[in-house]
Design brief:
By secondary structure, the protein is of the alpha/beta class. It folds into 2 domains: 96 residues, no CATH class; 185 residues, Rossmann fold, CATH 3.40.50.150. It is built from 12 helices and 7 strands. It has a 7-stranded mixed β-sheet, with helices on both faces. Helix 10 links the parallel strand 4 and strand 5. Helix 7 packs across helix 8. The chain is globular, with a radius of gyration of 21 Å. The termini are far apart. The structure holds S-adenosylmethionine (SAM). S-adenosylmethionine (SAM) binds next to helix 5 and strand 2. The site of S-adenosylmethionine has 19 residues, from helix 5 and strand 2.
C-alpha cells in the first residue's frame, strides 16, 4: 500500500500532544517535571501514531542526542560502542538544544541498568582475581568499547587477568584498543563474528552483555553450546539479557528504533537447559533494578 506523508494525512496525535512535543524539541528535551507526561505519550503510542510522532520529534532525532544516535545508527546497528560508552560516562551534550534529551535518556531505568551491569561485571572480575593461580582468562563476546575492561584494569593495575575481546565491528575494536592502550599486555582483540570465533584456550569467565538480547532463541542456545565447552573446570559463562520488566522498552523502540528480545528468568533457564547445561549449575542474577538479568552457567 502506498504510504501517505505524515503532514498530508489526518494526524492521529492530539493537538495538545503535538504542541507539547513541539515545545520539547524547541527547548532541547523535557525538564524533569515533564518526564512523566512525555513517557506516558510514548508508552501509549500505537503503530499508526508512531510515524507522526517521529515526524514531530525529528529535529531531535539526530546524532547530537543519545536517542537520535540510536535512531540514526551511524554504524549500521543499534547499541553501538559509542552509545554504550556514553551511557557509562553519563555523557550529556552541553549544547542546550540537546542537553535535556540526554539527561532524560540517562535518567531512564534502561540506562541505569546498563551502568549497573558494568558494576556487576567488575564484581565478577574481582572474584576471578581472587581465585588461586598465577593467571586468569576472561573472554568477552561483543566487547564494544571495552570501557568495563578499562575501568577494571585502571582499578587493578597489577591484575592477573588476561582479557580476550571479540567484536565484529572494526570501529569498536579500534575504539577499545585506543582507550586501553596502557593495558595492551593484558588484552587481545579479535575482530570476528562471535558465531564464527573459535577459541584456542579455556577461560575462567566468559562474559557477554548487550549481545544475546539481539539473538533469537535458537542462536542463543547455539551460543551457549558453542562456548560452554571453553570453560575451565569451575569456570563460568555469564550472559546478560534485558528482562520483560524493562520500563524503558517502549522509549527505546519509539525514540531510538532500538528493539531487543526481552526475556524472563524462566526463558534464560529454559535455554540453558536446552543447551544441555545441568540444572544445578544454572542460576539467574539481576542487577539492582531487575531490568538486566544475568544467566550464569557454571562448568562442572
Ligand atoms: C551493546 S554493545 C555491548 C558492549 C559491551 N559488551 C558492554 O556491555 O559494554 C554490543 C557489541 O556487540 C557487537 N556485536 C553485535 N553482534 C555481534 C556478533 N554477531 N559478533 C561479534 N560482535 C557483535 C557490536 O559490534 C557491539 O560492539
Amino acid at each position: 500500500m502506498k504510504s501517505v506523508h505524515p503532514t498530508l494525512a489526518l494526524n492521529p496525535l492530539s493537538i495538545e500532544d503535538r504542541e507539547f512535543i513541539r515545545k520539547l524539541v524547541m527547548k532541547g528535551g523535557p525538564d524533569p517535571s515533564e518526564y512523566q507526561e512525555f513517557t506516558v505519550i510514548v508508552n501509549n503510542l500505537d503503530d499508526r501514531e508512531l510515524e507522526y510522532f517521529r515526524e514531530a520529534i525529528k529535529d531531535s532525532l539526530n546524532e547530537n542526542t543519545l536517542i537520535g544516535h540510536g535512531f540514526v545508527k551511524p554504524y549500521g546497528y543499534p547499541g553501538d560502542f559509542t552509545i554504550i560508552h556514553n551511557i557509562y560516562k553519563l555523557h550529556v551534550n552541553p549544547n542546550v538544544r540537546y542537553s535535556n534529551w540526554d539527561s532524560f535518556f540517562q535518567d531512564q531505568a534502561g540506562a541505569h541498568a546498563v551502568r549497573n551491569r558494568k558494576d556487576y561485571f567488575l564484581r565478577r572480575c574481582a572474584e576471578v582475581e581472587e581465585q588461586e593461580g598465577d593467571m586468569k582468562r576472561v573472554l568477552i563476546l561483543g566487547s564494544g568499547p571495552a570501557t568495563d575492561v578499562n575501568e577494571y584494569l585502571k582499578m587493578n593495575p597489577g591484575s592477573k587477568i588476561r582479557f580476550d575481546l571479540v567484536d565484529f565491528d572494526q570501529n569498536a575494536i579500534d575504539f577499545a584498543r585506543k582507550q586501553n592502550k596502557d593495558f595492551s599486555g593484558s588484552i587481545e582483540y579479535f575482530k570476528i563474528n562471535v558465531l564464527r570465533f573459535k577459541p584456542y584456550q579455556w577461560y575462567d569467565l566468559i562474559w557477554s552483555a548487550g549481545l544475546f538480547d539481539y539473538f533469537k532463541d535458537k542462536h542463543f542456545v547455539y551460543m551457549i553450546s558453542k562456548y560452554y565447552k571453553y570453560l575451565v573446570s569451575g569456570g563460568e559463562f555469564i550472559i546478560g539479557n534485558f528482562s520483560h520488566s524493562n520500563p524503558t522498552r517502549r522509549l527505546m523502540e519509539v525514540l531510538s528504533d532500538w528493539y531487543l528480545v526481552h526475556r524472563s528468568k524462566y526463558d534464560l533457564v529454559r535455554m540453558a537447559l536446552e543447551a544441555e547445561a545441568t540444572e544445578e549449575l544454572v542460576e539467574v542474577d539481576m542487577e539492582e533494578l531487575g531490568v538486566n538479568l544475568f544467566l550464569r552457567i557454571k562448568a562442572a
